[in-house]
Fold this protein.
Amino acid sequence: MNREERGMALRAELAHRAEQVVRFERYYARRLRATSEGRRPNETNLSVAQAEIFHELGKAPCPVAWLRERLALDAGYLSRSLRWLELTGEITVSVARGDRRGRLVTLTRAGERSARILERDLAQRAREALERLPRRQQRRLVRAMAVVVEIFERDALTNLVEAARERG
């Protein structure tokens, strides 16, 4: 196989992988929508992004800029989400110490309670989804998910260096 043919084969292989990623993403998005639509009456009516905000704030107060970067949210969308959560008494947004331009987001007591409920309900839905599968398939799914998280949480520079080495 000459260099041009090898390049075409690599591009075709990458196109096939991209199709599989899109297929996985569509499947995952469909499952996520189905899970969200199946909420129980006692659950907070939050968007997926707002639930992720609760998850991050459950660890510690966060600067707005960090939340925007971590959750890959549009600044306007994040601002509207934070404004809604502040109006509902779930969070407070204050001026960050040492940088008057920065804002720090903190859960209120009500927000902490909501975050605990969200985490508990998410864990329950995960258990329910896993219970439908045989244990062998449960283990396979969990291993596959761990690999996906490992790949996407990996340092971007490490991935870039490794990809450059592969290309020569």
In short: Confidence is low (pLDDT under 50) at residues 40-44. The chain has three domains: 1-38, 46-132, 133-168. Strands lie at 62-63, 91-96, 99-107. Helices lie at 3-37, 48-59, 64-71, 75-87, 109-131, 135-153, 156-167.
